[in-house]
Amino acid sequence: MPATVIVGAQWGDEGKGKIVDLLALDSDFVCRYQGGPNAGHTIVVDGETFKIRQIPSGVLRGKTCVIGAGCVVDPEVFLTEVDELESRGVSTGVVHLSGEAHLIMPWHVAIDQASERRLGKLQIGTTRRGIGPCYADKAARLGIRVQDLLEPKILRQKIEVALAEKNVWLERVYGVPPLALEEIAAQLESFAQRIRPYVSDTSLLVDQALREGREVLMEGAQGTLLDLDHGTYPFVTSSNTVAGNAATGIGIGPNRIDRVIGIAKAYVTRVGEGPFPTEIEGPDQERVRELGGEFGTVTGRERRCGWLDLVALRYAVRLNGITSLALTKLDVLSHFAELPVCVAYRLRDGSETYGPRVRRVRRGGARCRDFARRHRRGARERRRAALIEDQARPLTAHAFAPSVNAPSGSPSRRRHSSRNAARRSASSDKVYAPAGPTPAVNGSQ
Ligand code: IMP
Description:
The chain is α/β, with parallel strands linked by helices. The protein has helices at 16-24, 75-87, 106-119, 131-139, 152-173, 181-195, 202-211, 244-250, 283-292, 310-320, 379-391, 402-405, 411-424; strands at residues 3-8, 29-32, 41-45, 48-52, 64-67, 72-73, 95-98, 102-103, 199-200, 216-219, 259-265, 268-270, 304-306, 324-328, 345-346, 352-353.
């Protein structure tokens, strides 16, 4: 089975890094197909801790590493990681960077930060690394690509054209100081010299490896529910995180993918704003966070913690075509006597949805084998599971529209505003029903 995709089955931070590191031992290539320095892996090798954001973690095992065309690359972050790895004795000669990947420029970072500040309570809670603005320029065909670094004249020209426009945005729309052309051009030219040796035709490289029967791992960043098309829009990242995008992001045919391994935590976390049906109320949230060390690798932010959400997990299995599932961090839950699990979302018409095949579910998660088996035992446990299902109720279409109710403040405040907005918009009976018998309704209109 030479081509394997590793995909996050929740909202990211599922522990993909650990699994990739394990599977990398038997692989020849480790490739990233989307995202940029918004992702972060903490890998411990022989007692040494490495935090990497841009370069695939396979570099620590001496594997050929590919940053595919679907990625966005911050050249400064990339080179800082190169220096850090080299200074600790890890060779980066195995790293190949697609010439078609897009560059995160200083104005992308400035706009991401200014835009989040401006949105205030309506903010998405991005990592503020310029991801969204960079992908937006890519789609608008205004982006600067890694291959542009190879042509100093073209690079200079592209920076001039882009910056003239971006400075207008920065000054007039966001009210922040403009960026200096000469400074940026000089910095990029010096980065270009150092990045040049890493630039390759990565699509061809991976194709050749697969033809030779070599083992190729394609690792997704973030998670399924942060997918731009299929996630909890607009509280998502700006790329397609799902396994299908591995083919596009690397530049191989979809029929080359042999298996898809989903990674899920035994509970759920999410960073940033957006709906989160199983978010834990009360001190248990803090307990899970502390026990699981749930703080962002990139931003250091506290991760919101929730109980396992099987509706969302089934959705991820369906969307990605997951062939095997790795469950991480089970040990964290051993500190809890009771483990609520969400088995169904109750919709506004009173019906429940919990999976693509079975339409109805008894309250209390009686059909969920693993943790929820405990809930069969008594009414008290059943009430707790039902409580979790209840939390899913405000997930109407309108709960996703930031102009209506972008969550802010504490989890309970967020839930209330979500409920209020759902009430205000009672005219809509559209529901967000991932994994339900009907397809998910995108409620951002
Ligand atoms: P962006 O990718 O920085 O634009 O952030 C968009 C959303 O994705 C925010 O809610 C972030 O917190 C979230 N996000 C981005 N990268 C990660 C990640 O690696 N793990 C978890 N959440 C992430």
